[in-house]
Amino acid sequence: MRALCWVAADELAVREVPDPELRNERDVIVRVRRSATCGADLPLLAGRDPLLRAGDVLGAEFLGEVVEVGPGVRRHQTGDRVVVGASVACGGCWYCRQGLHSCCDNAHADPASVDPDWRADAGCFGRPRAAGGFAGGHAEYVRVPYADVGAFRVPDTVDDDRALFAADAAPTGWLAAELGTVRPGDVVAIWGAGAVGQLTARAAVLRGAARVLVVDRHEDRLRMAERHSGAEPLDYRRTDVAAELRDRSGGRGPDVCVVAVGAPPPDRFGRRSADRPDASREAVHACRKGGVVVVLGATDGFVDAFPLGAVTDRRLTLRGARRPDLRDVPMLLDRMARDELRTEHLATHRLPLEHGPQGYELFRDRADGCVRAVFTP
Q: First-to-last CA distance in the chain?
């Protein structure tokens, strides 16, 4: 089958790879109909993971049709249209029973490859061995382990382009609002107007926030957040963000601040930094006393000069998440079916899988207004 593979730093190629096979009784094989780029792919694309190997298949977010079912699968049958959560989780360990699927103890395919000083999170599609070693969704077919836990039937009234974002971006946005304990009447500020930032804004609106403000510098993304999420845009190039946030929150600062800036694009010399601490620092200083700051996404390094004193002095709660859990996917699909949650506008570029390398260039460089590139095998 054809699949989009990592070759070297900033180099991808569509190659022929072996077809996936059932390995365990709880597996299914899915024929992919749609797959999407993801911000967590960018560090891999840049070659920053030492465990990544040439030929690894990328793609954490995908949707397709079940074509083969293991004997232990109970919830799915051949022909089901399913969206697959990015996290791979067993459903039975202590963390999964608490609904913390992204912390699953058993879905990591190769624990020996992990640094012993930190415990692995769950497996993930399209990641190297340190994240489970599961081949990704930028392919014609994918093996989905623990299918009864991580694959979800899509309602007939929800089309592929909308349901695709229930794999990761929409659950991440909902998780951010949940971690921030967004309540009716709250003022919520979000740094980053990409797909996750926009869906965090929409989640905050659905949870009853009185005002939702999105901070970014890309005018097309800010307009999109305003139109589709009901957010108030703030262009940090033209606005004193801290002063504006105080003014729009009764002088206190936002109740909840969410950092969803994702991986940075390269600078003019082609360099990429490992972390984006500026937004996190600004969020800490902007948040009202007793408020909540949520940091999303893959941040693999260390951040110096973090304002820890401001966290303690202002009695802030600081929470973080790399990937969402699976428990919210059915609820989000129901909201999509009721037209409360629309996500298809995020698929700004639709390309055949053969154009995957070009799609990732657009996505990485945020060129031509690209928010997400969606591939069709």
A: 10
Ranges under pLDDT 70 in the chain: 109-121, 129-132, 263-277, 298-302
**CB-CB contact of 353 with 376 (8 Å):** yes
Residue owning tokens 């949940």: 178
Q: What is the pLDDT of residues 277-299, one digit of tens each?
A: 688 999 999 999 999 999 998 66
Give 183's contacts (C-beta < 8 A, 6+ positions apart).
Answer: 207, 208, 209, 255
- The DSSP line for 314-354 is TT-EEEEESS--STTHHHHHHHHHTTS---GGGEEEEEEGG
Query: Is the pTM above the cut of 0.90?
Result: yes
Query: What is 15-80 written as a DSSP string?
Result: EE-PPP---STT-EEEEEEEEE--GGGHHHHTT--TT--TTPBP-SEEEEEEEEE-TT--S--TT-
Of residues 140, 148, 117, 113, the one with CA closest to residue 127: 113
Place of tokens 């500026």: 278
Would you state the pLDDT for residue 308? 85
Question: How is residue 299 written in tokens?
Answer: 């941040």
Give residue 56's identity as a one-letter amino acid code: D
